[in-house]
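Example record used in the benchmark description.
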Amino acid sequence: MIRSAILLAFATTTAGAFAAAPASPLSTISERSGFQNTGRYDEVADLCARFQKAYPKQVRCFSFGRTPEGRTMLAMAVTRTGALTAEQAKKRGIPVMLIQGGIHAGEIDGKDAGFLAVREALENKAAPGALDKQVLLFVPVFNVDGHERFGKWNRPNQRGPVEMGWRTTAQNYNLNRDYVKADAPEMQAMLALVNAWDPLAYIDLHVTDGAKFQPDVSIQVEPVHGGDEALKTAGAALQNAVMADLKSQGSDPKPYYISFDKDDDPASGFVDSMATPRFSTGYFPLRNRFAMLVETHSWKDYPTRVRITRNTIVSLLSQVAAHGKEWQKLTQEADARAAAMAGAEVPISYRTTFNVKTIQFPGYEYARGYSEVSGGLMTHYDESKPQMWTVPLRDEVVPDLKIAAPQGGYLVPAADAAWVGAKLAQHGIGFKVVASDQMSAEVETFRATKTKFGAQSFEGHQSLAVEGDWARERRSLAKGALFVPIAQPKARLVMAMLEPRGADSLLAWGEFNNAFERKEYMEEYVAEDVAREQLEADPALRAEFQKKLDSDAEFNKSPAKRLEFFARRHASWDERFNLYPVMRTAQKY
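Model output (structure tokens):
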């Protein structure tokens, strides 16, 4: 699988680093094996301590959490500025970049590439001088428990290393779906790390799944499609600069996720999109910070993938060194704009248009035919025959649903204040506790006109999609409710979490499902008597009922719907049914 010619090219590309690696106490098992193996987590702990011992003024190895199986989550702060704590970095205004490996622990390129890039940067063999102008936070393995679920076939569609970790955590959470809901203890620890250090850029290192083709990596950056408008220009510049560096080193990077529009069908081409905030590249733009998703291609061998990931990290170090101060200023200005966006139209979802361009994409000769195994069409590639594909690309991403931000903020009722407040605190979102009862507060409420629950569990949740809109009314507000002001830097994140129609809102993840479940009923014989009394007492209601019978065939044929027509008009009807508990307010508490 790994040819000596590839290894030689790898060593040449990285300026002889691998020839010297065995003599270094800071080399990895991966390096010493010719990039065929990767080490277990005890190697991470050992290397983290060794780096700190070798460079006590430049490296701090520290724990930022514990996993459900009791393992220590480790990070390294690497810099020549002397700012080895979050407090020091903030006080001195030094740009921070957080690079994370192993969120999917089978996709472990980032761990081995990161240790290599850090060593070379400390030796000034890579990105010379870059550590004088920034702090690099390196998390070698995010999903530590998954990393220790080691096996040879954990990634059957990936070429190397020989053994690797598992995609999900010990609790079977996919951390790369958890940024907003933050169910996993690991994600809660990561968010605490992010809140403390406030990284300018968050780099998420992966290996893609997918078909066999020639391009070796995709580099996706946000804000580019969504987020603060002014940050999009800087995001595009960062993406273009890293891609240019990779091209100069022999890679063929793409700015979109290189997975076919239709599975297993190369002719379907590619579709770019704006990630929702369950993903890192959808989440960090809501904090007015940069995020980059790096996806090396799974069918490239491990030496190739580690080389490309190492090159990406080195490029990023150089980019932050050159532009970090400028980008810090841009993000601070974006924070101020976010804090002042009361009443403004804010996109809470995006869509890819059907505008199509035709591109030339380097692939391999392939054939599609009927499989007697699967019973469907299957694609077979011939990697000995490179072929240029002519395929469609849809990459125009535009806002879909826009919502006017509240003038004041959101009100979370006292009954939900504890758990919602804890969730907001995990994200560093500010809120206040309402100090006194209000019998008739003027608010906006959201009543769902249509609800759709997910058919099956996803990440431990039953999702919910609602239709409806906000409307003004007066409601009582009990002491102990929370006021979440829109006037704060994370206002976009506040809206993403609390607007009911947001793709990854707390409601969408099923956290408020109880409010949309009917709990009280009339027995049918009682409902029948109630209906007859209403019909006799109210001629207008009788006419409305008849009109509904005549115009709605489904209603006409459903005894349950017909009885509900009257139940909804009875004093016993639960007026809170389908009422979203969170309210909006123009008042500033």
